[in-house]
Amino acid sequence: xxxxxxxxxxxxxxxxxxxxxxxxxxxxxxxxxxxxxxxxxxxxxxxxxxxxxxxxxxxxxxxxxxxxxxxxxxxxxxxxxxxxxxxxxxxxxxxxxxxxxxxxxxxxxxxxxxxxxxxxxxxxxxxxxxxx
Length: 132
Hints:
Largest sheet: 4 strands, antiparallel
Mean pLDDT: 78
Order of helices and strands: EEEHEEEEEE
Oligomer: single chain
Number of helices: 1
Number of strands: 9
Strand order of the largest sheet: 6-5-8-9
Strand content: over 45%
Low-confidence stretches: 1-18, 27-38
């Protein structure tokens, strides 16, 4: 999988051709295409695990995937209260967050909305469930 801006992606295309009627297709050729500078789109961002259950899984963070290099993350409660805002960088296309508020206190069990925004102003909202 692609991991972020500045990384490379390898795509393989295989074409099957049959030169005679009623015969099974045979591999005639294949090509390898190389694409450099792939940058994920904020609209494809996802998070895991969800629901986040640190007491069961032993995982101490939430990971966001398919991120652009520069993005911001704002976390809201379901009532609309801003819990956290961060300007972030992700050279790898992923970002780990400890599920804590701006005072670094663990978020309580509940439903939260993460608003991600890239440097071009594109947005993606994700719902996160925390069960402590």
